[in-house]
Each structure stands twice: as C-alpha cells, then as structure tokens.
Amino acid sequence: MARALRNKPGFYLLTRFLNSSSPAFLAYRRWLQTIAYEEVQVSTERPYNSTAFVIHGLLGSGRNWRSFSRNLAATLSISSPSSVLLQNNWRMVLVDQRNHGSSADLEGLYPPHDIVNAAQDMANLVRSQGWDWPDVVMGHSLGGKVALQFAESCARGDYGESAALPKQEQLLVLDSVPGKVNPENSDGEVEKVLETLQNLPSSVPSRKWLVNHMMELGFSKSLADWIGSNLKKSGDHETWAFNLEGAVEMFHSYREMDYWSLLENPPQGMEITIVRAEKSDRWDPDVIQRLETLAARQRNASEGTVSVHLLPNAGHWVHVDNPKGLLDIVAPKLASLGLPTAYPT
Length: 345
Known about the structure:
- The chain is of the alpha/beta class.
- The protein contains 12 helices and 12 strands.
- A 9-stranded mixed β-sheet has the order 1-2-3-5-4-6-7-11-12, with helices on both faces.
- Helix 2 (66-79) packs across helix 12 (323-335), helix 3 (115-129) packs across helix 4 and helix 6 (207-216) runs antiparallel to helix 7.
- The longest helix has 15 residues, at 115-129.
- The chain starts with a strand and ends in a 10-residue tail after the last helix.
C-alpha cells in the first residue's frame, strides 16, 4: 500500500507499508518481517538518486523527524547544480524502529529487542524492498547506536556480500554516547520516565490527564507534552503508540553496547560524524576528550575518519532545540557526496 500526503507546496510525504496477502509473500514474511517507514522527497516528479536513512530515538518514531527531513531535502536540492541532469534528488527514509510507532503493532519482529536486531531490521527492510543500500545513515540517541551497529555489521559482512556501507561515506550520530553508558553520568531522567510509564495503566483517560500527571510527578511540561504525543486513541481512552516493555529492553541494550572500536578503526572511506548537544547531560568529560583525540588523529588512506561537532543552544532533543544549527552541520556533509553525472533512465 502506498499513500501520498501533500504536506505543503512542493513537498510530498510518502508512507508505505508492506501489505500483500499472496501465499508466497506470507510464507516469506514469517521469516523476514520488516519495520514500517516513511519516505520524504522534495518532489516525486524526478527519481531520487541518493538515500538517507533517519533513525529516531527511544520512545519516538519517524514522524518526529518529518519537519527536519523536509528542510534537509529542500536545502540539498537548492545547493545542487542548476542543471536538472546533475541535481541530487534526496530521499529520506524515516524508519519506525521495532516497538515504536507503526512498527509497534507488527508481528514477526522477534526478541531479543536489542541494538543488534534493530540494525538487522534496517538491513531486512533494504532487502525486502529491493533497494540499493543507503548512501547516508543518521541516528539520534538510541538510533545513533543503531546506526553504528548497522555500519559495523555491514563492514563485517553480517548482512551478506551485497551489503554496502554508507558511501563516501557518511554516518551521522546525533547526541549518542558511542560507548557503554554509566548511569552515574546523567541525572537519570530517562530511567525515571520509563519507571513512571511502567507504573501507569496501559491506557489513560486523555493526553491532558497524562501531561498533568507527569508534571505533578516533577517532570517538565516540555517532557510531559512529548510523552503525551506518543499516545493514540483507543475507544474512549488513550493508549501508548509504542511497546513499552520492548522499548525498555532496547534502552538496556543501548546502555551496554560499545562502539569505540569502530571509531578507533573506521572503515576505509567512511566519515563518522558525532554531533554533541551543548546542553546535553549525557556526555562525560573523558568521553568528550576521547572523541576529540580521535577526531584530531592523522589517518592514512586505508582508514576512515571521525569528526566531532558541538551543536550550540541545544539539549538532547537536537532537532527541536536547534534545528537550523543541526541543518548547518548535516547538510554540508550530505552535499559533499559525489553528484551523479545524470539521472538513471
């Protein structure tokens, strides 16, 4: 099923979900379920020739990144040469990770619900749709570690010989600590949110009730509003748009996974870009120093590189707190990729 939604003049949002009832497809689907996704393009009148995967964070969904992705695609279109034959028409694929968004209700995304399987879901999506492998992978928070795992698994050949790393090669990790996360290095807000949600009933009277309840417990209005945005209507009540227990498992996996070895030895030709939010509480000084040392290291042609960028005036929710600043970091990275000589015919 494909559905096109016009968001504003010149923009289209394509939402596609696998929906086939053929016996052969159903037999295959039992073995390979794929996550839900949306596609954002500036225009559908010209075929896309570059693809970026965008991976949301914990308790989020792809729709959290619609506005930023539209702006990013538009910026890249404007920065391309005026010749139609040389313009780079980007497609942004906004995935809903397992246990989140429209993927929360899908059967066949079996446990363990961890970072490794979340990255495998991305590879399964590429294969099931018959796509080329993405040119760029960008992940925020939990999604940042999924992006790192995806790159590491591609480099190891875990997804087969046909799997290709993001080319020339851009991996963007947004406010996501690459190593194991020490709970003592943060204020424990995420843990408090998860514990609070686990103590709530599976359905609540209304979004307003939830927001007020969260604020009474000491959470900020902005955080309470964001939690409330993850509700969906179910009869006379509201229920979660995510699978809470599965999401908790993914968070535990996020804290335990360590990708320092990938940053120490990035694959040839790849640039791993780490974006750290200035006001984020997730960064230990030792981690910051280690990243800056890696970024300054002189590397030979057989190695990839690491770059580190500070996003000013932003907390952890980088695309909400300072979307223009984030765009100024991300857009040049994507624009630097080689342009096609012509559109495929």
